[in-house]
């Protein structure tokens, strides 16, 4: 805790040796000293006359938040000219209206022309008002701000430069935010092409070059340049092929075509890039981003400091492999080639991968052993997650069997005709299955997920991006290598990509132009986070697996304990494990109820009592905190219901639409349950653990979906396909089918082609 004027504020341990810029976005959270440059387009309104007060208030709030974290914040701001223009316009209009009224003696005023206002006069009139506004805003966060006006001479004169440096350091030491601007009231007109001629020479002709010069002079860790575009594009924004550049490296200027300058202000994107590269060479990291977008401007600065993928990050370190955007494009191109292969060729790839899993068993288990040792040494994984991380010979054999099932069942998945209609004579319509496109599968602690999902993507002709957890890095690496080896037999190696860069999951979820479907495999928290972060990309999955077993009055004594034991104890961490046991009230205090309780105690299952169950007991187990709990361990809730109808209502209120079971010998009661429970999987006298793609005969699954659109339940090949319509005609036009046209619609259903019997 540091003190200034007897007011304590918290500081963060953010020091680092200056001299080299950050290599990756994820390191930006360590930035201690930060310059935020606000372009004219960010600070001014759309009419270029006056300030965008809402945006400015949001920026001040973010800067204050970072300052109060113990960072040293500086602002290089535009806006004095726009603020001064607004004031001078008002004064001129007022003056003209008074003179005209006196001269004409009339109350009605004619149209008045406003003279062109000289920028330096506007700056002189606007500086004090702009600073007063900043002071008022920062005061709301108990932060003091100070104004510094500079010109080019202040950097070229050694004494002035030392004075400026000393002033800024003293302000930062006192926890004051310096607000710096070029003194536009006295600055001469800019000389064209006179700035940024080398590492040691940069003239201050606009606030971009000022911010760069200041950042290097003050040994700043990070320079954030906010403008009215998302960042740097490979061609002018708005053009058809323009793509946002995530990371820009020195020397990449040749691949960029610059457009016109900003709608206001003196610098364009070319000036910003030159200034950014100059700062980068001086050891300061730079991000250029949009400060005007209403959806992101409220958190753009804090997002950048947190390392999120916002704008264009300037880095001197080129990654060894492709970017995730390039990987997604490679996966799309590879997926399209994969979809064009013959079904037998796709099956060959999967059979080859199944063989490799058993042939390379020792290497796979060795890599997995490294992951397990690292996880145990770091102590970061709970026992259930360690079990998921672990591979064994039996697991690999089961994987290989599942993959061969997928290969055998995938012969006519892609391109299968599911509907044929004769629209009119010689005009036939077909609906055929096609791949979804590019899938992003994010999975935790389950390396066996990689070959399963890869096989399903191959069988369905989809491109695939895989993002595994760090805890399974060695296992994932070798399994992906084997997958690409199998794909290589038909030249489609790039169709399956493993993301090894430092991409955050949240950033991957923003790639809506490159990814068509996200499938999370992991904890309910992971699924919820992805569902929240996905921007315009559908997410297939379930956030929770709150599975119920209802024991009816007509339940078989022999079946009850077997089904409950298997549902809860066979693999308690699974999403299809029993979490809530519903007991019919008439079974309380019966031998069957005692058998259930005894079995759970023997299996060391911790019991939580639902409110109704607790009311029947003198000494009850701990009452459940919530009936919507997924324990994922040897724990479960027991609750009492009065009827099958009440059981259904309880499941609808507290369940997650995953898997629910009834145990009864009464067929009528069972059918009522099966028809009325609105879950993805509803079973009669069978364990919840059957809710699985392999057990359903799908070979494997990419996950279990509780969504009501597209796929539901265990998702195999069919869930990774969509359809398209093919219409074959012969010079047909719609006007021929009008009231006075020569043709009539037939809409006849045609027989489907015979499916491959294999």
UniProtKB/TrEMBL annotation:
Domain Aspartate/glutamate/uridylate kinase: from-to ranges: 32-290
UniProt xrefs under InterPro entries: AceGlu_kinase-like_sf, Ald_DH/histidinol_DH, Ald_DH_C, Ald_DH_N, Aldehyde_DH_dom, Asp/Glu/Uridylate_kinase, G-glutamylP_reductase_CS, G5K_ProBA
Keyword flag Plastid: no
Domain of life: Eukaryota
SUPFAM superfamilies given in the database record: ALDH-like, Carbamate kinase-like
Pathway: Amino-acid biosynthesis; L-proline biosynthesis; L-glutamate 5-semialdehyde from L-glutamate: step 2/2; Amino-acid biosynthesis; L-proline biosynthesis; L-glutamate 5-semialdehyde from L-glutamate: step 1/2
Swiss-Prot/TrEMBL GO biological process terms: L-proline biosynthetic process
PROSITE patterns, per database record: GLUTAMATE_5_KINASE (PS00902), PROA (PS01223)
Keywords: Amino-acid biosynthesis, ATP-binding, Kinase, Mitochondrion, Multifunctional enzyme, NADP, Nucleotide-binding, Oxidoreductase, Proline biosynthesis, Transferase
Catalytic reaction equation(s): L-glutamate 5-semialdehyde + phosphate + NADP(+) = L-glutamyl 5-phosphate + NADPH + H(+); L-glutamate + ATP = L-glutamyl 5-phosphate + ADP
Single GO MF descriptor: glutamate-5-semialdehyde dehydrogenase activity
Principal location class: mitochondrion
A single Gene Ontology CC term: mitochondrial matrix
Compartment(s) of residence: Mitochondrion matrix
Entry EC number(s): 1.2.1.41, 2.7.2.11
Domain Aldehyde dehydrogenase span(s) in chain numbering: 323-588
Entries under NCBIfam families matching the protein: P5CS, PRK00197.1, proA, proB
Cited function: Bifunctional enzyme that converts glutamate to glutamate 5-semialdehyde, an intermediate in the biosynthesis of proline, ornithine and arginine.
Subunit-level organization: Can form homodimers/multimers.
Family classification: In the N-terminal section; belongs to the glutamate 5-kinase family. In the C-terminal section; belongs to the gamma-glutamyl phosphate reductase family.
Descriptive protein name: Delta-1-pyrroline-5-carboxylate synthase
Species of origin: Rhipidura dahli
């Amino acid at each position: 805790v540091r003190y200034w004027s007897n007011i304590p504020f918290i500081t963060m341990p953010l020091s680092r040796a200056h001299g080299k810029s950050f290599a990756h976005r994820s390191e930006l959270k360590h930035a201690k000293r930060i310059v935020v440059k606000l372009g004219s387009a960010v600070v001014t309104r759309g009419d270029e006359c006056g300030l965008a007060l809402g945006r400015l208030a949001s920026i001040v709030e973010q800067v204050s938040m970072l300052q109060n974290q113990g960072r040293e914040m500086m602002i290089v701001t535009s806006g004095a000219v726009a603020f001064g223009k607004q004031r001078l316009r008002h004064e001129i209009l007022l003056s003209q209206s008074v003179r005209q009224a006196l001269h004409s003696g009339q109350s009605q005023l004619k149209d008045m022309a406003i003279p062109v206002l000289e920028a330096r006069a506007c700056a002189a009139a606007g500086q004090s008002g702009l600073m007063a506004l900043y002071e008022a805003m920062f005061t709301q966060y108990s932060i003091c701000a100070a104004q510094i006006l500079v010109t080019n001479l202040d950097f070229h004169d050694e004494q002035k430069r030392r004075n400026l440096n000393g002033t800024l350091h003293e302000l930062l030491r006192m926890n004051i935010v310096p607000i710096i601007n070029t003194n536009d009231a006295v600055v001469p007109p800019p000389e064209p092409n006179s700035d940024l001629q080398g590492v040691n020479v940069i003239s201050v002709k606009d606030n971009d070059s000022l911010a760069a010069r200041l950042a290097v002079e003050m040994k700043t860790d990070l320079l954030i340049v906010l403008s009215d575009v998302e960042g740097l594009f490979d061609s002018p924004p708005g053009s058809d092929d323009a793509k946002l550049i995530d990371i820009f490296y020195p020397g990449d200027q040749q691949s960029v075509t610059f457009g016109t300058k900003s709608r206001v202000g003196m610098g364009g994107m070319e000036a910003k890039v030159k200034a950014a590269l100059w700062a980068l060479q001086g050891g300061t990291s730079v991000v250029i981003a949009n400060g005007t977008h209403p959806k992101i401007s409220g958190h753009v600065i804090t997002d950048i400091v947190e390392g999120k993928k916002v704008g264009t990050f300037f880095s001197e370190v080129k990654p060894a492999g492709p970017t995730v955007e390039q990987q997604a494009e490679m996966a799309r191109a590879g997926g399209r080639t994969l979809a064009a292969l013959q079904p037998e060729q796709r099956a060959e790839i999967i059979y080859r991968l199944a063989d490799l899993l058993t042939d390379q068993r020792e290497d796979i288990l060795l890599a997995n052993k490294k992951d397990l040792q690292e996880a145990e040494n770091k102590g970061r994984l709970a026992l259930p997650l360690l079990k998921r991380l672990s591979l064994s010979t039996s697991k690999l054999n089961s994987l290989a069997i599942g993959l061969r099932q997928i290969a055998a069942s995938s012969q006519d998945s892609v391109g299968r005709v599911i509907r044929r209609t004769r629209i009119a004579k010689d005009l036939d319509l077909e609906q055929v299955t096609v791949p979804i496109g590019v899938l992003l599968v994010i999975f935790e602690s389950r390396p066996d997920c990689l070959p399963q999902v890869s096989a399903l993507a191959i069988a369905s002709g989809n491109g695939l991006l895989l993002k595994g957890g760090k805890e399974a890095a060695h296992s994932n690496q070798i399994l992906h290598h084997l997958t690409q080896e199998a794909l290589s037999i038909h030249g489609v190696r790039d169709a399956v990509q493993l993301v090894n860069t430092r991409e955050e999951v949240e950033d991957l979820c923003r790639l809506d132009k490159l990814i068509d479907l996200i499938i999370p495999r992991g904890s309910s928290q992971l699924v919820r986070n992805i569902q929240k972060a996905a921007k315009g990309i559908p997410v297939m999955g379930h956030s929770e697996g709150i599975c119920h077993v209802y024991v009816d009055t007509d339940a078989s004594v022999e079946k009850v304990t077997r089904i409950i034991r298997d549902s809860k104890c066979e693999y308690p961490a699974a999403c299809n494990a029993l979490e809530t046991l519903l007991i019919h009230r008439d079974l309380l205090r019966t031998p069957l109820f005692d058998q259930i309780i005894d079995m759970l105690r023997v299996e060391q299952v911790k019991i939580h009592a639902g409110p109704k169950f607790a009311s029947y007991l003198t000494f009850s187990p701990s009452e459940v905190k919530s009936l919507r709990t997924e324990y994922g361990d040897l724990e479960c809730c027991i609750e009492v219901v009065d009827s099958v109808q009440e059981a259904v209502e309880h499941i609808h209120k507290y369940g997650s639409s995953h898997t629910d079971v009834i145990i009864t010998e009464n067929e009528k009661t069972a059918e009522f349950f099966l028809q009325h429970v609105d879950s993805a999987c509803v079973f009669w006298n069978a364990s919840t653990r059957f809710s699985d793609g392999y057990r359903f005969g799908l070979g494997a699954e990419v996950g279990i979906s509780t969504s009501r659109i597209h796929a539901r339940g265990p998702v195999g090949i069919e869930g990774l396909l969509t359809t398209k319509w093919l219409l074959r005609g012969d010079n047909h036009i719609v006007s021929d089918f009008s009231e006075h046209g020569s043709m009539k619609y037939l809409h006849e259903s045609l027989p489907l082609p015979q499916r491959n019997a294999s």
